[in-house]
């Protein structure tokens, strides 16, 4: 398949799984916005407004993670119930093209939520070229690793109900427990250590640090955060390339 | 005629199957180019497993398949550019309309928008789907959904089409429309691998057939070849009272409502027909149908299997 055709396939998947369903059922968008905004509201009430900035930046990270959980459900449903993956396997479309297209289509659902958070950030935060660039880079990496993880898991699930089992656990480990919505220092010492296992902790540190929230970000700590995030993303890409079952064993 | 697909000692064991249980067992087939090749067999015989392996969706355990000269073990990418598949029990995405299902599938395969549009319009018309073009899949009957899946693949540019039970749930008129489209694809020198439980469909469409039972090839050839290879290639139906003991020596006899059904050889069929007519009984006579062959071969296979398992049990009991 030529590069031009690959691009056409990716854009077709975006249209097929993103634009057309939203056009026919706009409520999908509300569903994607609801979860991050609920978290923001909760954090705002509990912290009496003091963690609002954390909530806004955390909402952007959570929105990207939501892409992964939605992708996982869609891929499992399409593979298992509709046999869509089998239709695609027996075609010139390769696995990376399929995943990229499907992951981008899920991003379409998240764009309105992302727009809300960016608007809040511009209105209430302190947007600069640097922190907007950092937030964008972190969001791309979170979207990429969440999508790679979703694809790998989706090729193992035997039923879409299994995604309902795993998605909350993944969300818990990657978005709720790590200090995405609050500073790392707000956690007890043991939890701070445990949070270092999650890549989202590094994503949150980068986003918060670049916006002047929490502990100041030094050059070396920023390098560590980027390094961990990139390494984690690369590891999940490798896992997807080696372990995902595009063809069944 | 060169083979579009060659399966060589193909074997498949599913990872969670009990030891020694083969879904496919030493299956070797030659599927000619530009023809419809029918795969028939009972549920679980191995038809879908074969299709999924040849369509590069499932890994083989033993042996291999060559599709258009490419080995499924090492040249999947080359194969995938030239095949298309309607999997068993597949359904179109429910939030698309019929036209979008076909058009977007063609674009997904890399066809340019103009070509995709033209092919979509042609197949919608050929399969009488034009009136449904703007109807959401979620609002369609099961038969129209299945026809949409067939349309999607038949409109593609693939050289080899795998159709796994493509007409399940279709009414007789819709089935014949799909048959016409399959025949048209075959005339375009495309190879079609068709699995079906409708034996009239297999016979009407296929230039060659393979009967698979318990993962093994039981019979293979043209419909005429299959008839020539069964024990009793003729069937005689006698309406009225005819002594069964007289018929038993001619072949396989079974009682049917209002008479007897005899499977026999050609010469004996004429002899029995003459005797029945002399008694003033009504008869019908002709070559066996594919369904008769299927029941004969599969029935024997079941008998052999049950005899063999009884023997195994007896041996186990004796050694205990």
Features:
heterodimer, A: 249 residues, mainly alpha, 10 helices, 0% strand, globular, B: 320 residues, alpha/beta, Rossmann fold, Alpha-Beta Plaits, 2 domains, six-stranded mixed β-sheet, four-stranded antiparallel β-sheet, 11 helices, 14 strands, 40% helix, 25% strand
What is the structure about, briefly put?
The complex is a heterodimer of chains A (249) and B (320). Helices cover 78% and strands 0% of the residues of chain A.
Biggest interface and residues each: A-B, 32 and 36 residues
Number of domains of chain A: 1
The backbone outline of chain A, from C-alpha atoms, is: globular
CATH topology category name of the largest domain in chain B: Rossmann fold
Return the average pLDDT of chain B rounded to an integer.
Answer: 91
Number of strands of chain B: 14
Please state the second-level CATH architecture of the largest domain in chain B.
3-Layer(aba) Sandwich
In terms of per-residue confidence, which ranges of chain A show pLDDT below 50 for 5 or more consecutive residues? none
Report the CATH C-level class of the largest domain in chain B. Alpha Beta
Structural class of chain A: mainly alpha
Helix-residue proportion of chain A: over 70%
Radius of gyration of chain B: 23 Å
N-to-C CA distance of chain B: 56 Å
Estimate the strand proportion of chain B: 25-35%
Q: Assembly state here?
A: heterodimer
Q: Given the structure, what is the number of helices of chain B?
A: 11
- Could you say how many structural domains of chain B there are in total? 2
